[in-house]
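pls design
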C-alpha cells in the first residue's frame, strides 16, 4: 500500500501530512524570511481541455506567464528587466475541489528582492501595487506572439 494508513484511494490525513511537509520545506528551505506573494492563474475552458489532452503545452505557457510577471515585478521595483533575476515556485493544480478539470497555476514569487551586480540581495522598501487585469492580458498577448 502506498499510504501510511494502509488504505487505497484518497486519504485526507496522508494528503494533509504531505501538504504540511511541502509547505514547511518551502517556508524553511526555499524562501526563508523573504516576503512571498502568491499568484493564481486560471485558464478558460478551451485551454483547460487543450492542457489536459496535450500536457506538453503547459511548459511553454508557464514560461510566458513567468516572463510577464518577472518583467512586471522588475518594473515595479525600478530595476532594469535585463538585470533583474526573479525566483518563483509554481505548483500546477489539475483538479478543483470537486475533482473537476480545473488546470491552474499556483505561483509563489519572492516579493521585493532582486540580486544586484555584486550578488547582494537588494531589498525594496515599497511593495508593488496589485496588478491590473488589462496589463497582464495585453502583456501576455504580446509575449505569445
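designed seq:
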Amino acid at each position: 500500500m502506498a499510504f501510511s494508513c494502509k488504505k487505497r484511494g484518497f486519504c485526507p490525513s496522508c494528503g494533509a501530512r504531505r501538504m504540511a511537509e511541502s509547505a514547511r520545506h518551502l517556508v524553511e528551505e526555499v524562501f526563508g524570511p523573504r516576503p512571498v506573494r502568491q499568484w493564481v492563474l486560471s485558464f478558460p475552458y478551451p485551454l483547460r481541455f487543450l492542457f489536459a489532452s496535450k500536457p506538453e503545452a503547459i511548459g511553454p505557457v508557464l514560461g510566458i506567464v513567468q516572463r510577464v510577471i518577472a518583467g512586471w515585478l522588475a518594473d515595479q521595483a525600478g530595476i532594469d528587466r535585463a538585470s533583474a533575476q526573479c525566483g518563483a515556485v509554481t505548483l500546477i493544480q489539475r483538479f478543483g475541489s470537486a475533482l473537476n478539470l480545473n488546470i491552474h497555476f499556483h505561483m509563489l514569487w519572492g516579493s521585493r528582492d532582486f540580486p544586484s551586480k555584486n550578488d547582494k540581495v537588494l531589498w525594496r522598501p515599497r511593495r508593488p501595487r496589485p496588478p491590473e487585469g488589462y496589463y497582464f492580458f495585453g502583456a501576455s498577448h504580446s509575449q505569445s506572439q
